Amino acid sequence: xxxSFPVGERWRRLLPFGLAAGAVVAPLLAPNDYVVGALARxxxxxxxxxxxxxxxGFAGLLDIGYVAFFGIGSYVYAFLxxxxxxxxxxxxxxxxxxxxxxxxxxxxxxxxxxxxRGDYLAIVTLGFGEITYIxxxxxxRPINITGGPNGLIAIDPPSFLGYVIQGNIQYYYLFLxxxxxxLLASLRLRDSRIGWAWQAIREDELAAGAMGVNxxxxxxxxxxxxxxFAGFAGGLLASWQRSxxxxxxxxxxxxxxxAMVILGGMGNVFGVILGAAIIVSLPEIFRDLxxxxxxxxxxxxxxxxxxxxxxxxxxxxxxxxxxxxxxxPAGAPAPRSAADD
Amino acid sequence: MGDILAILPQQLVFGLALGTVYGLVALGYTMVxxxxxxxxxxxxxVFMIGxxxxxxxxxxxxxxxxxxxxxxxxxxxxxxxxxxFCGGLGMTLERFAYRxxxxxxxxxxxxxxxxxxxSIFLQNAVMLTQGARMKVYMTNxxxxxxxxxxxxxxxxxxxxxxxxxxxxxxxxxxVVLVQRTTLGRSIRAVSEDREMAAxxxxxxxxxxxxxxxxxxxxxxxxxxxxxxxxxxxDFVMGYSAGLKAFTAAVLGGIGNIKGAMVGxxxxxxxxxxxxxxxNPAFKDVVTFAVLIxxxxxxxxxxFGETLADWKKV
Amino acid sequence: MLSxxxxxxxxxxxxxxxxxxxxxxxxxxxxxxGGNASGKSTTMKTVLGIVRPRTGTVEFEGERIDGLATxxxxxxGIALVPESRRVFxxxxxxxxxxxxxxxxxxxxxxxxxxxMERVYGLFPRLKERAQQYAGTLxxxxxxxxxxxxxxxxxxxxxxxDEPSMGLSPALVDQVFDIIQEINRQxxxxxxxxxxxxxxxxxxxxxxxxxxxxxxxxxxxxALLKADDVRRAYLGEE
Lengths: 341, 313, 237
What we know:
The structure holds three protein chains of three kinds.
Chain A: H1 9-29, H2 33-58, H3 67-80, E1 81-82, E2 87-88, H4 91-110, H5 118-138, E3 159-160, E4 163-164, H6 167-190, H7 193-203, H8 205-210, H9 215-241, H10 251-264, H11 269-285, H12 290-307, H13 334-339
Antiparallel strand pairs in A: 1-2, 3-4
Chain B: H1 2-36, H2 43-63, H3 71-102, H4 109-130, E1 135-136, H5 139-142, E2 148-151, E3 154-157, H6 158-180, H7 182-192, H8 194-199, H9 204-230, E4 232-233, H10 237-252, H11 257-277, H12 283-297
Antiparallel strand pairs in B: 1-4, 2-3
Helix pairs in contact in B: 1-6, 1-7, 1-9, 1-10, 1-11, 2-3, 2-4, 2-9, 2-10, 3-4, 3-9, 6-7, 6-9, 7-9, 10-11, 10-12, 11-12
Chain C: E1 2-11, E2 14-24, E3 29-33, H1 40-47, E4 53-60, E5 63-64, H2 70-75, E6 78-81, H3 93-100, H4 109-122, H5 124-128, H6 139-151, E7 157-161, H7 169-184, E8 188-193, H8 196-202, E9 205-210, E10 213-219, H9 220-225, H10 227-233
Parallel strand pairs in C: 3-8, 3-9, 6-7, 7-8
Antiparallel strand pairs in C: 1-2, 1-4, 4-5, 9-10
Helix pairs in contact in C: 3-6
């Protein structure tokens, strides 16, 4: 087993707290504001990746148009808190509406796809993602709703009881707080009845249905929760950038987020955060190699799928002892097992 | 409205021409899906690379000032290398990016993600070697713009006719190959019952490889035709073309060769109608809406047969 | 001709064959009896290399064939009539037969044509329906096609997995007559059956498989008389 870490059980249990402490002091140690901004981006994307992890990692529903919910969240926040429609809702109620709209859009997109198999589902989600993007670009005529390619600007920053968040450090802590909450929610969900139902669906949908899992409701829950997380991240992005543009929500962002989930290890919340940290920071570190970034990224996806399809961290690390790995199907014929997942 | 009706026949002919080319690309998706039950997400990039190879050949030929060569000769000189290269590329992808995954019985997620990786990789490989700027096809040297015919009152350029003829010829060749040759029968046997095909003594891995070769070669040819038609190509052109072709394949019933052709034609016509009657900016929305509605209400497509039980789930 | 020695085969984590040994001599009809999930089909798949034995050996005509690719094993002279027919339903009857001769595709065409006529001779119905899709045939016709398809490989050993399944009693008799006829023409046959009485009536010898282990082996006549076999597979008290 390649990645059993040489740390004792006690250390393994303490590790998350150590990481949390590290995350809290990190911006104080950062050499400049640019690094703090990068750290904030990591938190934001970790938030997104955790949301997609609910859909892909927990429930096994491959969504490759996930960025649509990120975009919907951003634009809804922009509608509610900018001069565009003259609305200036306070941050908290605005975010609640954002979350609600995102959840509903998750259900709307999830509902028609419930009967579809894995790969068809992927294509439909991609289609929805594209439609969302095209609408964002083109809904500035005849009535200006989205601002078209120019986006929306002068969006209100977050404020709590009159205290206005400003500066990358404050945003960082706001994002980190949200990330912490979402992380805890993810862990709770994973070990709840809903989480077990998702796992059952992921392993074998027919069997899950036969065991009494309401697969329809469970799948919609996954879509709604995943979309809510993304909506939150979208609202935060809009309030941080103070502007939103359609090009924030291109297809390759969906793939980026998916790569975070896969890189870290699908289903493992810590792995997903690690994946987000790696994918956001790598291009920052290798700025000179920026041109080769995507090339390497595509190659990495292939290599990873071939050599370590389970991602960097095992599924339940660090909280559960390693389960023995499943025995490889001994010489079982590939064709059928490949066909019935 | 009168104006719209006046240009409608013209638009329909464009739609047919585009549709046959979509059909060519769709064949690649549908054949691979037939034998592997996998969406080869990188197929759009194979198509894009075909367009680049055709462009390169044309540029070289013009450089050697063989522009006087009759188009009848130049076109095959562009198509054949593009098809061979793309076919080889498809086989390489299958061998190194997909086979290690499905051979060990991975779920569908694995090969699909690997294919997404391959797609990003190929896009960027082309961008890094060829530059991010558009390349311009010297279509005018081959098929001058004023080289047109009036057929039943519709003004059609020779290029459009060539596109349709080449696509139909290639499709016809494929149908003959699949229906009448040993390789074709092996492909059908593998897509119907892989285990029994192996029991017949068929080397399933090689048949899958050949399927990738054929599908990718058709994709490469389609790339050349689209390059000639739009006269501008870039490294991201495979993305939306690939999606449309996939839509066409699904529309016709994925895994079904006849379905891919009809689906392509239908989609080409739908798209040209959308451009004519609705805002052109939303033409892709129409495409995706067609895709989603088909998947939701008739996932087996127009010609799709109900799959055998073990292929479902 | 064929011999399995201590073959252990796994399906994923499940041990399907727990050390199976059996032998088939040239010219015989050998029958392998056993209930559901006794390991009969796994034995067939192991012989053909569709699943690989974890330990033990499979020899055919004196050479080890475990570890060879299925295609190579078929080329050496073993063909299968699979359980529930599994003809290629979207190919014509003629094409199915052509697929059967796939391993001989480089042989002269008139050789293949002669074998095709031989199959048509055994099954005149197939000739009538040569251009029809196999999926449109009746169950009995599909069984004949599956047998004909296997014969097109001109096997020296024919494996048959439950040829009587789903057929009416009259058709079962007909199929087993044909099996005997094929054997008379010189093909060795290993047939897996649940319908023990019919199978034993034409077989020379028989084996009984239970839970992946061989529990009995004898001449067909002796097995027909053996009390436990009668009770378990012939439905007699």
